[in-house]
Amino acid sequence: MPDTVLVLNSGSSSIKFGLFDVAAAEPALLCKGLLDEHEAKPRLVVKGPTGEDLFETSNQAPDGARGHLFADVLTFIEDRFGGRSLRAIGHRIVHGGPDYSGPEVLTDDIIAKLEALTPLAPLHQPRCLAPVRTLAAIRPGLTQIACFDTAFHHGLAPPASRFAIPRRFEARGIRRYGFHGLSFEYVAGRLAEIAPELVAKRTVIAHLGNGASLCALRDGHSIDTTMGLTPLDGLVMGTRCGAIDPGVLLYLQQHENMSVENVQHLLYRESGLFGVSGISADMRTLLASREAAAREAVDLFTFRAAQQVAMMATTLGGLDCLIFTGGIGEHAKEIRGAIGERLAWMGVRIDAASNDAARERINGNDSMVEVFVIPTNEEMMIARHCAALI
User: Fold this and answer.
1) Which end of the chain is more exposed for a tag (fewer CB within 10 A), N or C?
2) Catalytic residue among 149, 224, 233, 351, which?
3) 180 phi and psi, to 5 degrees?
4) Would you say 375 and 330 are in contact if contact means Cβ atoms under 8 Å apart?
5) Residue 82: its pLDDT value, please?
């Protein structure tokens, strides 16, 4: 009986999922879908591997909606793929802290340790862990596996991993961890497939989306990244501020009389593209807008991205390859073009026609840096980890 793994990728208001056949060497997608809790009536949509509609339902009552929809997912899988055995459910967990460098079968003890990391990822960690408990109640005997966004960066070493604060705090785990690791790991693997000669070269992957970060790679390993202890640092994001003078935070508390909770809400939910534009956190909306504030938000996004690509290049000692991925990186040609223009001094030349068509390789013939657009697939990466573990 073929084995399957259900993969859940939890976001701020929705959960992407995929069902994979893991009997072969490479997991094969059987169906994919979305648990959308943003709408008034939480909704479940299931599609086939090529996007054809398979199933849709909604829940009238928001209370307990998620549990109801998870039960619907499992029922759909059993009805449609009943000849296959569901071996495990794999979860993207944003923060693994200092202890977890690879996938783990979830136990009550591990779940408790991961919940203790919530202050380091308050927007993400509870959203990632809630489905674990819900599914454990629905199917208590089913194996659940955690795959961590921090794991790919687990080998970060000083000075890249270190904050310039007293060492006693580093001993307590206050260090730079990095995130988007599942995405970076998948894209690094794809680069090895399509351009193996570049694996040993100096590469920066730009995961640009509602959350955004960069990763400096050599030999397929992360040696630096723009996010730190939490997913707040680095690039400008949809609603997150990215790098900021810590004195701003002290000023807000001391002189604007903002509580810690209010500052946290400001940094995670009211800043970034949304805060600067005052219009939207969605890059598509900002690119279509004629408002000056929208243009200024986009300008800051590309300025900061190019600036920090150069920072990653400093860690690498140069730049041979730049890869765009993530929702913005894959689909916003204007953003790729603007970042490329800002990096022209480094020898980056993006071919306009290739960029407009979002081809796999978009650099011009005169470019000193190879430039790629490589779609990410975090769900596939989780499926691979789960298949290896079981």
Assistant:
1) N
2) 149
3) 60, 25
4) yes
5) 81
